[in-house]
Amino acid sequence: MRLKIAVFASGKGSNLKAIIDAIEDGGLGATIVCVVSNNPDAYALTIAREHGLEVFALSHKGLSREDHESKILDYLSKLEVDFVVLAGYMRVLTGHFLKAFKDPSGFFRVTNIHPALLPAFKGGNGYEDAFNYGVKLSGITIHLVDEEVDHGPILAQRAFPRLADDTLESFRARGLALEHSLYPEVLAGIVNVGVEAMLVKNGACSPAAGSK
Fold first, then answer.
1. For labelling, which of 136, 138, 139, 143 has a CA lying 20 to 30 Å from the CA of 180?
2. pLDDT digits (tens, 9 = 90+) for 98-154
3. Are 53 and 23 in contact (CB under 8 A)?
4. CA geometry: angle at 30 spanning 10 and 140, to 5°?
């Protein structure tokens, strides 16, 4: 059975493109049922349309966070969505949204990618914060989303070095290349072995045991 995913993106959509490529190459047994954005001008939507994918764009401007999420949930309710995949989606999802994707095992069926080795450098500027701090080693984290920002059971982390002659741009480019390989790999793991097996492999706690 193929995993049915809704990909959320707010910007250029480079991780979306990596996921699409993995699906089209046969390395990821998933179907993107829709691409959702809070930015109607996001290039991610152009990428989605070029690949014949359904899109739903709704600006958050002028709407409360709950109203915006409710409208997205109304749209998603018409589709069969196994997982929500956050790929550069620059909005924090609240419990109002997440509860619609609560799995019986205790986790939310929502993944996120973060450009740092969590719990370090949370927030929207992971590359900049890590680079400015002067780290010698940084990395990428993919995790299940919970009701805290940049928090939740970790599915995978992969590190990359900061080189002596790195600029922020070259540092970020190395991280992005890692993002584009790791996210499809983790989604393939969800398809092939399931979330709980991946959490055990990564040494994370059981979601159900850790939930409140």
1. 136
2. 999 999 999 999 999 999 999 999 998 999 999 999 999 999 999 999 999 989 999
3. no
4. 50
135 within 8 A of 162, measured Cβ to Cβ: yes
Question: In which element (H, E) is residue 190 found?
Answer: helix 168-192
DSSP character at residue 31: E
Copy the structure tokens of residue 163. 């080189």
The encoded tokens of residue 206 equal 């059981």
Query: How confident is the model over 35-52, as pLDDT tens digits?
Result: 999 999 999 999 999 999
Q: No. of H helices and E strands in the chain? A: 8, 7
Domains in the chain: ranges and CATH: 3-210 (3.40.50.170)
The answer to whether the CB of 82 falls within 8 A of the CB of 3 is: yes
Residues in the chain: 212
Q: What is the pLDDT of residue 204?
A: 58
Interval 164-183 mean pLDDT: 97
The dihedrals phi and psi of 136, each to the nearest 5 degrees, come to -95, -20
* 210 pLDDT higher than 80: no
Averaged pLDDT of the chain: 93
Which is the catalytic residue, given 60, 68, 96, 114? 114
* 143 noted as active-site residue: no
Identify the CA nearest to 136 among candidates 166, 169, 112: 166
The two three-digit tokens of residue 47, written as one number: 């990428």
